[in-house]
Specification:
eight-stranded mixed sheet; 8 strands; 31% helix
Length: 247
């Protein structure tokens, strides 16, 4: 909820989440430099540990809406909490960006240029066969190996969608959570439990490689999130991931 909204506005925007509930938050800090000095590390490990210990003491097992003085007048959202942690860390050590996971599948990012991002991970299951119509059978077999098996094979694909745009300081939100999830689920629905090559039109003329899947998915999601998509990642297996970014 946000103390800057009235009860009706909070209920309309956050729904059941206005009731007291808890999360196992996980934070990732990223440090960056254009030129590394050979005589010193990018950031001193002891300094980071001291900073994290202070944050842990301040936030761990607390009721964020009431127990944390620094959050008294701030919206208690993932985006706002990420911003608060970013400010606290940046005051001690030079920080490039922060990612705060409220859940394993939902996170907010704050960057050093004050950009705010919101991300969500949603899986889908589909089968495919790697085969390029422009290549001969021998060329396809050489290029794609066992993935060219005529019977195809399946994956549990994992998408990671990140949106940007204007952050609303009053509500503490970048994008409506429910609308965000719905946009992704609607985009994935035509592919869910389908053979991508045989049951969809997206891969009639191009092979259903990870690169082409993420390229085909981009406009589907982007059109549903008002062209605010900034990064789209697709994990095909635990060992390979494909990323497309807005430039």
């Amino acid at each position: 909820m946000s103390p800057r909204l009235n009860a009706e506005e909070n209920a309309r925007l956050f729904g059941p989440a206005t009731s007291i509930h808890g999360h196992n938050y996980r934070v990732r800090l990223t440090f960056r430099t254009k030129k590394l000095r050979s005589e010193a590390p990018l950031v001193w490990h002891a300094a980071v540990n001291t900073c994290l210990s202070a944050l842990h003491d301040e936030l761990d097992h607390r009721y964020l809406n009431e127990d944390v003085v620094g959050l008294k007048d701030r919206p208690i959202t993932t985006e706002s909490l990420a911003g608060y942690i970013y400010e606290r860390v940046k005051a001690t050590v030079p920080l490039h960006r922060i990612r705060l996971h409220e859940r394993e599948d939902f996170f907010a990012e704050i960057w050093s240029d004050d950009s705010v991002f919101l991300g969500m991970r949603i899986p889908f299951h589909a089968a495919h066969r790697l085969h390029a119509v422009a290549l001969s059978d021998a060329e396809n077999a050489k290029l794609y190996g066992k993935c060219n098996n005529p019977l195809g094979h399946g994956h549990r694909y994992l998408t990671e969608t990140t949106v940007g745009g204007e952050y609303d300081k009053r509500s503490g939100t970048l994008y409506d959570f429910v609308a965000f999830r719905k946009a992704i689920e609607e985009s994935l629905k035509p592919w869910q439990n389908r053979h991508l090559d045989l049951e969809t039109d997206d891969f009639r003329d191009v092979p259903s490689t990870g690169e082409n899947i993420v390229r085909a998915l981009w406009p589907k999601i982007d059109n549903r999130v008002k062209q605010r998509l900034v990064r789209l990642r697709l994990s095909e297996t635990a060992n390979n991931r494909f990323t497309l970014r807005r430039t």
